[in-house]
Here is the input.
Amino acid sequence: MNGRTAVETLTSFNDAVEANEGHRLDPPRRDHQTPVDEPPFHVVEVQPGITFTMGGIDVTPDMAVLRRTGSSTTLPHFPESPATVRTATIPGLYAAGVDVGNVMHRQYMGGLAVALVTGRVAGRNAATN
Here is the structure.
């Protein structure tokens, strides 16, 4: 970590926030414009990543994976779609966690909760079927 660069970055951030110009920062800061000015300061190296997507495999309530068997459309299946899409389960195949689609309905709710619930359901059904 380059200490001089870190101090310069922090000073620039604080100056912009205190001048109510956080919107000029890169990336812009429009909400929660609070200066970072009370030590102690700590540096932690992080690596950004995508934890999961908000789409995935179509499953039944018992987490059995569905496949398309026939359809009047080539578009993906969405519950609000007027098209008729016929599906069937793939015997012995279950999905859970980030692989399951149509759970969040376009709103983020956290990946661990989905993994915990769907994992238990899929595991129980895979073991008994």
Summary: The longest helix spans residues 111-128.
